[in-house]
Amino acid sequence: DAKTTQPPSMDCAEGRAANLPCNHSTISGNEYVYWYRQIHSQGPQYIIHGLKNNETNEMASLIITEDRKSSTLILPHATLRDTAVYYCIVRANNAGNMLTFGGGTRLMVKP
Amino acid sequence: DGGITQSPKYLFRKEGQNVTLSCEQNLNHDAMYWYRQDPGQGLRLIYYSQIVNDFQKGDIAEGYSVSREKKESFPLTVTSAQKNPTAFYLCASSISGAPREQFFGPGTRLTVL
After folding, report:
1. Cα→Cα distances A27→A24, A33, A90, B109, Å
2. Contact residues of A toward B, CB < 8 A
3. I need a labelling partner for B63 at 20 to 30 A (CA). Which of A77, A81, B9, B21 fits?
4. Which residues of B touch A46 (CB under 8 A)?
């Protein structure tokens, strides 16, 4: 699976959009981009995933660059409850279901 | 309600004792996983099972054992051979086949005294 690089921490003001970047420059054609988040002392929660098209669901939007070497997770109106560690994971569709979690980005939403 | 349960939430054991962590799911998922998380770190895969009666080692399987006798259950035993067992243990499940999101339980925090 391709390696991902995320900033270790970010701050965001409550009510503003939170844009979390992820670099995956070695991604290959059959690898998907997944995002999970983990609120303190809880199990991770799936947010969204995509292959090459932008995706949106009730939680977030995922923007993948045309060359697929980077992506951005967007929380359109961050709330205090969105404070968590956000993990960007790249995984091939023939790699079973194993996920490799790195350090992630610690997002702090401030009032 | 469908979901994954892990029990207990907190567990204390003396050094040298084996301990078994419970993980049950009623989501009808074929695949189940165990991860370990140390403070400030990401998750590391211990074992996974894609189907009943079959399981494979993950990245850090030494000192751990699992069984998968039922689709709903995937218990993890932390043996006395695990040198640093104190950690947060997370169980997850998913539909088999890719790509599929994983659903996580609330975790068990194990402290070995």
Report:
1. 6, 9, 7, 34
2. 32, 34, 41-46, 49, 87, 91-104
3. B9
4. 101-103
